[in-house]
Amino acid sequence: EVQLVQSGAEVKKPGESLKISCKGSGYSFTSYWIGWVRQMPGKGLEWMGIIYPGDSDTRYSPSFQGQVTISADKSISTAYLQWSSLKASDTAMYYCARHSDVIAAAVFWGQGTLVTVSS
Amino acid sequence: QSVLTQPPSASGTPGQRVTISCSGSSSNIGSNTVNWYQQLPGTAPKLLIYSNNQRPSGVPDRFSGSKSGTSASLAISGLQSEDEADYYCAAWDDSLNGQVFGGGTKLTVL
Fold first, then answer.
1. Considering only CB atoms, which chain B residues are within 8 Å of A62?
2. Do B44 and A106 touch (CB under 8 A)?
3. Looking at the predicted structure, is the pLDDT value of residue A18 above 90?
4. Nearest residue of chain B to residue A64 (CA atoms)
5. Residue-level pLDDT at B91
6. Nearest Cβ partner for B92 among A45, A97, A103
7. Residue B81 near chain A (CB below 8 Å)
8. How far apart are CA A117 and CA B5, in angstroms?
9. Within 13 Å of residue B99, how many CA atoms lie on the same side as its CB?
10. In whole angstroms, what is the distance from residue B107 CA to residue B110 CA?
């Protein structure tokens, strides 16, 4: 059974750093792309970027380029989304999802990680 | 402002057929396939339709998708109360070199 399990909710202060994770199981982690999607409170879905764990090929949405870093550790089948300096506007639910190709649909989704940034 | 344009809301009564539109441009819907996602309250999105009109295993055939030019539509027939959710269209955008979503449509079953 394909599963994407994300790390737990986080409460951080502005300026702090954060790295959230998405662990894949039940499939060959290095053969599929992992994308990240942001959903701010009460708002719609926003595509942030995507990584191919097989060779770490990474693409970013222009809106998120330079704001976050997407990475993966194929030895532990885990993808990451990280911030070096959080802002209050980063408060959102973040989902990871598996794609068969960079332009393909996301068939499997993680349960989401809620990030709250507040002073 | 989302790259793909959807109506913010739609509604119907049980048993009715409703459609949700998604308008884009030549760089996204016009040149790539469209996917639709359903998001029930408090849950992660779920793939409903991929490649314009294909249903993943387990999705009822009450749900159907179509695409023409730079627009796409999701149709739900035999509307049920459990269909009350947010629906999002998505496609790859060649100009932005990334996936783009519609703003989402909140479907209410009256």
1. 96, 98
2. no
3. yes
4. B98
5. 97
6. A103
7. no
8. 30
9. 30
10. 10
- CB contact, 8 Å: B37 with chain A? yes
- Report whether pLDDT(A102) > 90: no
pLDDT value for A103: 87
Average pLDDT, chain B: 97
How far does the CA of residue A14 sit from the closest CA of chain B (Å)? 26
Q: Which of B70, B32, B86, B24 is nearest to A102 (CA)?
A: B32
**Neighboring chain A residues of B35 at a CB cutoff of 8 Å:** 105-106
- Which residue on chain B is closest to A41 by alpha carbon? B42
Over the stretch B39-51, which tens digit does the pLDDT of each residue have? Answer: 999 999 999 999 9
Q: Which two tokens stand for residue A88?
A: 């209050």
B87: pLDDT strictly greater than 90:
yes
Are residues B105 and B9 in contact, defined by beta-carbon separation less than 8 angstroms?
yes
Read out DSSP for B13-71? -TT--EEEEEE--TTTTTTS-EEEEEE-TTS--EEEEBTTTBPPTT--TTEEEEEETTE
B72: left (phi over 0), alpha (psi -120 to 50) or beta: beta
The structure tokens listed for B110 are 């009256």
For residues B88 and A103, the answer to whether their CB atoms sit within 8 Å is no
Q: Over pLDDT 70: what percentage of chain B?
A: 100
Across the interface, of B32, B101, B103, the residue whose CB is closest to A103 is B32
CA A115 to chain B, closest CA, distance in angstroms equals 15
Residue A116's CB: how many other CB atoms inside 10 A?
Answer: 14
